[in-house]
Design a protein that fits this description.
By secondary structure, this protein is α/β, with parallel strands linked by helices. Helices cover 40% and strands 18% of the residues. The longest helix has 23 residues.
Length: 319
């Protein structure tokens, strides 16, 4: 049985030890289709306060949001402290429980290039200054990054491992409109290709089971993402959580979630067509709490992985 080329395997090969991503949530960051710049309400599957916390510090920042046109950031010092505290707590646990030796700081929640350049520069440089940090992974949208930021990341990449993670979701504009994405597929293609030409590593996020999409449409999204030159991929099934526009569609009977059988079939086919050098960061997603409405098979991650490996075994692979 052949092991799928995973992101963890790539990092271990490159750095010679266990490298873990440390997920960070910086208050004050948002998204252009949440703040009304390109749309309102966020993507239909997104719960806008999904990443909220209840600390006094976060509450103080809750009504403050940055964007590309923000002229100042009076909370930068607090954000830098927040970054350091989160990194210290999470990396210590990863070292203790999993034997992690080096780390990538993963700016995960919301859109992490959607802020003034000086704010981004301060946060990225602070993250790279931490002990045993070998690089950054930055979650963003293709309509929320400037050439100035890309040029700066190119300079950082000469000494550090730098990744941009773009939400591709689908290459069909009619789907992107239905999910209230706020940009088209051409925009994603443009910035993935720009990032690759600049020497930046790119991870693409793909969602299977989006509204009205057939399996062929899902596979065409995978095919296009590979052709654009992504280095790594995250596969997600679309699941429904409470307090989202998608939940309203589901409750009205207007959205039917992808079944586990359908997901396994499209996932295996997408992995089969994947170029050998593209490593896999995620093969599924879900949530195990009372916010999940459907599908219920997305509740138990261990069961999902077990069933994925059963499906992969048929083509001689394991995850």
């Amino acid at each position: 049985m052949k092991q799928i080329y995973t992101y963890g395997g790539y990092l271990k090969d490159k750095f010679g030890c266990k490298v873990y991503k440390v997920g960070i949530n910086i208050s004050g960051f948002t998204c252009p289709n949440i703040d009304g710049t390109v749309a309102k309400g966020g993507c239909t599957f997104c719960e806008n306060d999904s990443f909220s916390a209840s600390t006094d510090e976060v509450q103080e920042l809750k009504s403050f949001h940055l964007n590309l046109d923000s002229k100042e950031n009076p909370y930068l010092d607090k954000q830098l402290i927040q970054l350091e505290q989160q990194f210290s707590a999470i990396s210590s646990r990863q070292a203790r429980e999993y034997g992690a030796e080096k780390f990538l700081v993963y700016f995960q929640s919301f859109t992490n290039t959607y802020a003034p350049f000086e704010t981004l520069k301060a946060l990225y440089e602070k993250a790279l200054s931490f002990d045993n940090v070998v690089g950054l992974s930055i979650g963003t949208r293709s309509d929320s990054i400037t050439q100035e930021t890309l040029d700066y990341l190119t300079e950082l990449s000469k000494k550090s491992e730098i990744w941009l993670e773009f939400g591709i979701q689908s290459v069909y504009d009619e789907t992107l409109i239905k999910i209230n994405r706020g940009h088209d597929s051409a925009n994603v293609k443009e910035w993935i290709i720009k990032s690759k030409k600049a020497g930046i590593n790119v991870c693409g996020h793909l969602i299977f089971g989006l509204t009205d999409e057939t399996q062929e449409m899902m596979l065409e999204t995978s095919r296009a993402a590979y052709e654009w030159g992504i280095d790594s991929v995250k596969y997600h099934p679309l699941y429904v959580v409470k307090r989202t526009a998608l939940a309203n569609e589901y409750n009205r009977g207007e959205f039917t979630p992808i079944t586990e059988e359908e997901y396994l079939d499209v996932l295996v086919k997408s992995i089969e067509m994947k170029p050998a050098h593209v490593h896999v960061q995620r093969v599924t997603a879900g949530i195990d709490d009372d916010s999940l409405l459907a599908p219920q098979w997305c509740r138990n991650k261990n069961t999902q992985i077990k069933n994925i490996n059963k499906a992969l075994k048929k083509i001689g692979l394991k995850y």
